[in-house]
Amino acid sequence: MARKRNNKQKKSNWRRRAKPGDAPGQILIDPSAISTKIHVIGLGNNYVEKEITDINELDAITASCDRLWIDVVGLGSESTLRNLANLFQLHPLVIEDVVNVYQRAKVEEFEDGLFVVARMIDGTDPATTEQISIYLKGNVLISFQERPGDCWDPLRQRLRQKRGKVANTDLDYLLYSLLDAVIDSYFPVLEDVVELVDTLELDIISEVRIEQMHRIHELRGQLLSLRRSIRPHREMINELVRDSISEVHPETRVHLRDCYDHVIQVIDTVDTYREVTSDLRDFYLSSINNNMNEVMKLLTIISTIFIPLSFIAGVYGMNFDPEVSTWNMPELKWMFGYPLSLTLMAGVAGLLLIYFRRRRWI
Amino acid sequence: MARKRNNKQKKSNWRRRAKPGDAPGQILIDPSAISTKIHVIGLGNNYVEKEITDINELDAITASCDRLWIDVVGLGSESTLRNLANLFQLHPLVIEDVVNVYQRAKVEEFEDGLFVVARMIDGTDPATTEQISIYLKGNVLISFQERPGDCWDPLRQRLRQKRGKVANTDLDYLLYSLLDAVIDSYFPVLEDVVELVDTLELDIISEVRIEQMHRIHELRGQLLSLRRSIRPHREMINELVRDSISEVHPETRVHLRDCYDHVIQVIDTVDTYREVTSDLRDFYLSSINNNMNEVMKLLTIISTIFIPLSFIAGVYGMNFDPEVSTWNMPELKWMFGYPLSLTLMAGVAGLLLIYFRRRRWI
Amino acid sequence: MARKRNNKQKKSNWRRRAKPGDAPGQILIDPSAISTKIHVIGLGNNYVEKEITDINELDAITASCDRLWIDVVGLGSESTLRNLANLFQLHPLVIEDVVNVYQRAKVEEFEDGLFVVARMIDGTDPATTEQISIYLKGNVLISFQERPGDCWDPLRQRLRQKRGKVANTDLDYLLYSLLDAVIDSYFPVLEDVVELVDTLELDIISEVRIEQMHRIHELRGQLLSLRRSIRPHREMINELVRDSISEVHPETRVHLRDCYDHVIQVIDTVDTYREVTSDLRDFYLSSINNNMNEVMKLLTIISTIFIPLSFIAGVYGMNFDPEVSTWNMPELKWMFGYPLSLTLMAGVAGLLLIYFRRRRWI
Amino acid sequence: MARKRNNKQKKSNWRRRAKPGDAPGQILIDPSAISTKIHVIGLGNNYVEKEITDINELDAITASCDRLWIDVVGLGSESTLRNLANLFQLHPLVIEDVVNVYQRAKVEEFEDGLFVVARMIDGTDPATTEQISIYLKGNVLISFQERPGDCWDPLRQRLRQKRGKVANTDLDYLLYSLLDAVIDSYFPVLEDVVELVDTLELDIISEVRIEQMHRIHELRGQLLSLRRSIRPHREMINELVRDSISEVHPETRVHLRDCYDHVIQVIDTVDTYREVTSDLRDFYLSSINNNMNEVMKLLTIISTIFIPLSFIAGVYGMNFDPEVSTWNMPELKWMFGYPLSLTLMAGVAGLLLIYFRRRRWI
Amino acid sequence: MARKRNNKQKKSNWRRRAKPGDAPGQILIDPSAISTKIHVIGLGNNYVEKEITDINELDAITASCDRLWIDVVGLGSESTLRNLANLFQLHPLVIEDVVNVYQRAKVEEFEDGLFVVARMIDGTDPATTEQISIYLKGNVLISFQERPGDCWDPLRQRLRQKRGKVANTDLDYLLYSLLDAVIDSYFPVLEDVVELVDTLELDIISEVRIEQMHRIHELRGQLLSLRRSIRPHREMINELVRDSISEVHPETRVHLRDCYDHVIQVIDTVDTYREVTSDLRDFYLSSINNNMNEVMKLLTIISTIFIPLSFIAGVYGMNFDPEVSTWNMPELKWMFGYPLSLTLMAGVAGLLLIYFRRRRWI
Questions:
Q1: pLDDT of A283-310, one tens digit each?
Q2: Which chains sit next to E, with 3 or more Cβ pairs under 8 A?
Q3: Closest to E316 (Cβ–Cβ): which among D282, D293, D320?
């Protein structure tokens, strides 16, 4: 059942898109998208936090605050998004990428702003990710999420309490903090997978069972999903660190470097564990094969011992008439014919056993 | 049958070519090529759309329009192509590449023009692609297709209605729009393959069947075809984005960057699904192996239990004469000889069953 | 037999070489090399074509022609080669590489000339290649072949008829034409291999046979040979295109770029088909395994059904004496003993068949 | 049991971390961390070595010595670490990385110092590594270890005796010496693994046993652990060598180059031995398969020979009544019926044996 | 036995090293090293060749000759090496690398000299290599070998006869000549391995045997050893060619480029043959599997045919009493009972044979 959800998710990565040949920069709202809510946090001397529905309410906050974080949750309301795009003069491609939620992580520099796409792990399923789009333009940072629920609550708490650097410095540091939290959202999920692999390894070493094959296959699929999601972040954050993007201060770059290290660590672990599961699969197959061979060997040995014995019994079950001539099965008339035949059988069995043992088969 | 067509297609990729040593720049018309039709769209203040047969008809359109899109469909008419090449002074290598329709995607800059080759997915078969050659030179863009039918109808619609940027700006944006549509033509086909892989995975997990092996093999082949077609586009579009090609405006480059992301996304998905099918194949093989082992094990166990029993029956089927001596099969004369022998058999069978169960074989 | 020739060829790639520690630049003639013939073509206002044996005959041609193509066929005559080297002041390493015919494709720029090594496919065996060395120095181009017979006859025809650009321009264009023909010599051979793979795939899908394994192995070997021969050409031609080599005019570079595309196409196809054959091998192995399993399963099922039946027959073949007691095999005396035993057997067989069918084994 | 420890270790690599969204630069002490001890060595004209508990004791040593090596062992005392960070104005990210002991090896340059993370092999288990963090800032070098016990005792000895370059030059040389010792700590462990692989190979070649599969799997896991630990050092030391980091003198770079060679050598060996174990696993599987096949073949041959013999015996065990007609088993009444039947059996067995031998099965 | 030596060698690559934490630049003499002999060749106007034991004897030769080649054979005499190091002011790391004979090939430029490490194939075992260290400083070239016996005798001969460029030019050409001979020492060994692989392939194609698996495994190991030894030379020689190392003249670089081609050729061949052996192993396994399947199939078919026949014989061996009722085995009393039963058996066997043939199993 867990698999089923997993697969559905994968498929949905590929459903809806503009038709080939459609104009670029279109806003194609996914009919199943959640309706949009806007959560605004004003920073600076004043701290303002407000859930707004009308874009025009922004004016008041802009007036009283130095910096603005507009967090847009849900991408279902076309008019709201369109108004927002107009207000902040977002490039059409930006808003197209925002609503088309199957982008790889990337960074794009526009003339008057910086556009970043990242993918956040949603909950505990490595295959379920949510697209996070962030647009930074001067004193305004707009973030777009697909669904309510994210990993930024500790960050909001710090902003509310005017605690930490993030509350008192330029918005590029907020951008870093958001990305850092997104990257860090991979760790718990990855730790779970890693622990499952390690547990499975111990389990396979102690006893091989057929269900383990399903587990290995599933874990490999999850690691593949994780790798596919996290890998583009490397290039994305690297571009933010290395390129001379004017929106990002040098001091923030030091922090992004740290964030980059985390991405590398995730990729590194995923790759290592892909190899671990690959080794594990080979080990599993060898083990199950060995077990099967052991069974077959023992059973075949049993058959092989009894077949000559049955043959001897068969011979003395023949109905040649000893009355006709002394050549015909005289053993049947011997005094010790029966015990001798049993002894013969025991002897054959014994010799076979000795031979098998010599060849180390038993 | 689907396979057959598939394979024929692959083979045809390799049939016709100039002989080694032939002069470069020759126009070698494929005898099976469709005869050429020219569809001209004039843009600018006037909008003209016309199907022409005589090259000279172009003059009138050129006079009344600022920009020209000449869409050449079918590559079978040598004289038409030759006239076109002369009129626009195309480099001989360009026209050679146009008619030799088995090129990889590429971009080439000539002194006075830009030549781009791309491959469009034709219909629903991942292995069938059509070569799209585009030559951009000042205010004229010439596109060459192998067959009628393409993914550009929405684009033409926009041109007709003078809608969108494409209708009102330089031709490099039209070039981008054409390429974008070509790249987007990969998505539906890829989505189909991906969905088939996902369905197949669920199918294999629920029950293993031999036909699934054919499906895996076929899907792997389709993914390979897709990768081979799409991969050269990465380099091609990257060159258009990065290199300072004079024909491409900076603003168009922003759009091509988006197009580049799409190419990467297709390649990424194809690569991921190559790995998924590889994992799936291993899983399939393990499953079918396990099933087979189960069958063999059970059957062997049945044989192994009956073989000693048959042996006992064989022993008491021997014809040693109990009359001759009391040593000869006295059991035959016992009152409970028969029931005892049956009990013995039951005992042996029981012990074997217990042993097999202890070793977890049944 | 085809294999045998194939393998001999591979081995010969590795026989003769200078001893470690020998002086570089030595001319070590292979004793089995064909004796040298020189075919000179003078280009320019006059066209001269002559088979010469004495180097001194060159003077006359040089006097009357602007450009010289000296085609040296057969590398067995040490003195001729030495004279040639002296006349044109070839670097000792050049002439060493020319006679040591197991070089990888490469380009080397010397102070006063350009030295190119390429490998031409010889005939239809992908494993048999011939080293082509070309030295270009001002108005003289010297080409060296191991054996008579090449892919340059159409080119010579064009020179004779003073047709095409190659007859009327600088020798770097001739160099390009020669290389282009060499690269194109890979296509027919590659097409053959590709067609064999495709045919084999259809064949395996319709019916698996043991010989197919040999075919797969052989085709993989041929693709490997092709890859090994063609791959160094990529770097070689790339150097000619990109590096500012003074001997190569910019216009020729445009043509070499085309040649580069062909190399990439060959490499690409070889790599793709290595993967195709790898998939095919896996498919073959799965198929043969499945077939084997089917056979074994059915046969084992037959055995398994008859074993209990034989056991029953064995029981009633026992010789316990029904006369001694009523406990001893009273069935033998029953009126319907025999029909009942047969019914019992049929019943057991039926139950087993039903069980096997339930478990989907038959 | 060794495996168990091994796996626990791996898991622990992934346990504790800051929650996603937490502020960067936090000091999150691992509750199980060992309490901190500080070992100071003052270098220069005076040599001072002291175990201190109060940071303030540093002042006295600073006064009397030119250079300071502060070796912090155990990362459990938050206040001590915090004081240290304040005293030397360490960047918050530095101290966060120090206590979060699951970093990859890396180097980071800060405005006023150089921060290096390395991983030391701890004891003899390739999977157990300890994070070594080093901060170099002018005349102070601070090193952080997780646990007491390291590979630096010979180095300390040299410092005490004012022997060697390390005692008399700038601290970047001490940094190099520390890193060199850390890298060298991989050699004994790697040598052990390599020797185990070589021994195992000889063992498998002489006789295949099932336990060997476990050994291969375990060794592959250890090599993977080693690779994962050592690989990031390559980039780290390369940055120290190549980049113009002001803290590192050119002369020290010569030494670091040597250190870099060692890293490459370790990585190289690990990679080679991953391949060796991979080959070994294939060899093991082929061997065990061959053995199994041998067993099965011989046993099946035995069965196959006896089955027709038993059939013949079965025929002559039939109870057709020879009295009724001369057609009913007249052989039973023949004078040499029994010997003839035995001869027939021997003949059949002999023919089968000859046939099997002809086909090279025995 | 060959394997044993092979493995011992591999292990010895890893035994002796400085302890972690030891000072760099130490001379740690291997106790088993051969005692040092110094062979000096003075070049220039005078030619001097002398075996010396005392370093001071060098002075006389230095006085009379322009250039000096000091060939140090055996690394067992610490004092001699130390004196040499002092005399020519070698960097401590140089002399450490010289005696620690398990280095990868590399080049290091020091302020006043060039240090090169290469690995020479020693004899015919691909796994046995000898470290060659060369230090070039102005007019002195010092080479260090582990053991007497090398591939430089033809070179010495040329020096003695003042033949060739090497005798009459600067020492960088001697350096090249030494390296060229070392690289060339790989060819005969590689040719042997390649020929063994090719022979083995033909052998496996004609008949599969179990010993071949050992051969494949051994050859793969040898190719791996070769690759590991040769691969670092690529980078090493590339650095000599490309980097502007002042000790190497441009003209020598042309020769080193040739040497580089040879290295690439060796690596290329090793890689190709790793793939060939990999294909070969798969082919071997398929073949042996096919053979085994053939055996098992035939034997199982034999069993399967006889099992129903034996069952029929068993039925008519039952002792139901025909006297009791006409239902009890009336066949026994039929006139043609026995011939009919035999016919029945023949019929069953025939039907089975026809069925098996229909299904293509025989």
A1: 999 998 888 888 888 888 888 899 999 9
A2: C, D
A3: D320
Q: How far is CA E293 from CA A321, E297, E298, E361, in A?
A: 44, 6, 8, 11
Residue C106 near residue C232 (C-beta atoms within 8 A): yes
CB neighbours (10 Å) of residue E249?
Answer: 15
Q: Which of residues 96-125 of D touch E (CB under 8 A)?
A: none
The length of chain B, given as a count of residues: 362
Amino acid at E312: I
pLDDT < 70: residue spans in chain E:
1-18
Closest CA to D185 of D140, D218, D144, D155: D155
d(CA A173, CA A167): 9
What letter does residue A349 receive in the DSSP assignment?
A: H
3-state secondary structure E93-115: HHHHHHHCCCCCCEEEEECCEEE
Rounded mean pLDDT of A312-337? 87
Closest among A269, E252, A200, C295 to D13, alpha carbons compared:
A269
Q: What is the ipTM of this complex?
A: 0.80
State the Cα–Cα distance between residues D174 and D165, nearest whole angstrom. 9
**D325 at E interface, C-beta within 8 A:** yes
D352 to chain A, closest Cα gap in Å: 16
B312 is written with which tokens?
């006992």
- Are the C-beta atoms of D130 and D163 separated by less than 8 Å? no
Q: How many CA atoms lie within 13 A of C22 on its CB side?
A: 13
Give chain E's domains with CATH numbers. 22-286 (3.30.460.20), 289-358 (1.20.58.340)
pLDDT confidence band for D18 (50 / 70 / 90) = low
B89 CB-near residues (< 8 Å, 6+ apart) = B112
Q: Please check whether residue C182 is in contact with residue C229, taking contact to mean a CB–CB distance below 8 angstroms.
A: no
Single out the residue of E70, E93, E80 nearest to residue E139, CA to CA: E70
B140, β-bridge pairs: B68, B137
Q: What pTM was computed for the model?
A: 0.85
**What's the pLDDT tens digit per position in A131-171?**
999 999 989 999 999 999 888 998 998 898 887 788 888 99
Q: Nearest Cα to D176, choosing from E115, E24, E104?
A: E24
Nearest residue of chain A to residue D100 (CA atoms): A262
Smallest CA–CA distance, residue A43 to chain D, in Å, is 17
C-alpha separations of B156 from A96, A282, C321 in Å? 21, 55, 101
A202 part of contact set with chain B, CB < 8 Å: no
Residue whose pair of structure tokens reads 């090529």 in the numeric block: B33
Which element (helix H / strand E) includes D132?
strand D129-137
Asked if E340 has any chain D CB less than 8 Å from its own CB, the reply is no
Is the CB of C21 less than 8 angstroms away from the CB of E152?
yes
| Best of E4, E19, E315 to mutate (most D CBs within 10 Å, chain D) | E19
User: For tokens 């990969």, what's the residue?
Assistant: B186
Q: Which amino acid is at B116?
A: V
Q: Are strands C129-137 and C140-145 parallel, antiparallel or unpaired?
A: antiparallel
Between CA D101 and CA D104 the distance in angstroms is 9
Q: In a 3-state reduction of DSSP, which class is residue E324?
A: coil
